[in-house]
Amino acid sequence: MRLCTPLALPLAATAALLAPAPPAHAAPACDAPGSRAFPLTTRIHGGPADYAPGGGFGTWYLDLTNTTARTCTDIHPVIVLVDKERALTAGQPRLEFYEDAADGDRPRPVRFEATDEDELVGAFGGPGFTVGPGRTVTVKVRLALTADTVANQVTANAAVVQRHDDDGDWVGQSNDYRFTVEADPRRPPATGDDRLPYVEELARTGLGPSGPALAATAALLLTGAALLLTRRRR
Predict the structure, then answer these.
(1) Contacts of 204 (CB under 8 A, 6+ apart)
(2) Are 57 and 195 in contact (CB under 8 A)?
(3) Is it the case that residue 119 has pLDDT exceeding 60?
């Protein structure tokens, strides 16, 4: 499921940013030539039904299941948020993911960028995930919203990209995960297994040395992600 040419340049430019060193060879395609089905079955599950602005993190999971006999490497989910009021801004969602679902100590932040269609798009950085034939990789994700987020209805889904040196394949598309942003910020924190108090300065102080690279990564992937979303609607 080869992506159109406009995605090639952003993916090539992000190769050096997503990993400590560029790979010696492009990742082999994990979909069979000519196949019309996505090689990765992708599912969001376990998330809370509502979030309180300024509250704690709500935890959910992203399953990446390889339905082929090939190994899928360099896999990067791209989370897309669409809100009913078109009021959600790129600085309000605080999304983090874990490279290992069992690792509770080192989450990676995801930087969102806004598209011309009032969508927020955030790419998972790092070296990417590897999913063996017939295997499932479960990615732990957590989300919080800043205190200035207005009452809203939000839909999240994930487009999954396999990055290559100078190109990329769209290899998965998740179900929709819908949640409510509560109007009263005094409500209890969102349910989940990460009831951590939210600190407004997290986005400024919690990114660490990888922050600039992740910010650049999301910006570079934005054009390609917006393109594949446009193709999906047709």
Answers:
(1) none
(2) yes
(3) yes
DSSP-derived secondary structure letter, 21: S
Q: How far is CA 124 from CA 18, 121, 151, in A?
A: 9, 10, 26
Alpha-helix runs per DSSP H in the chain: 8-18, 202-205, 211-233
The answer on pLDDT for 50 being more than 70 is: yes
In angstroms, the Cα distances linking 96 to 12, 125, 158, 234 are 24, 11, 14, 31
Q: What percent of the chain has pLDDT over 90?
A: 53
Q: With bands split at pLDDT 50, 70 and 90, how would you rate the model's confidence at 129?
A: very high
Identify the weakest region by mean pLDDT among 92-101, 153-162, 202-211: 202-211
Q: How many CB atoms lie within 10 A of CB 147?
A: 12
Q: What are residue 51's phi and psi, to 5 degrees?
A: -130, 145
- Size of the chain in residues: 234
Report helix, strand or coil for 109: strand
* Beta pairing class for 50-51 and 177-181: parallel
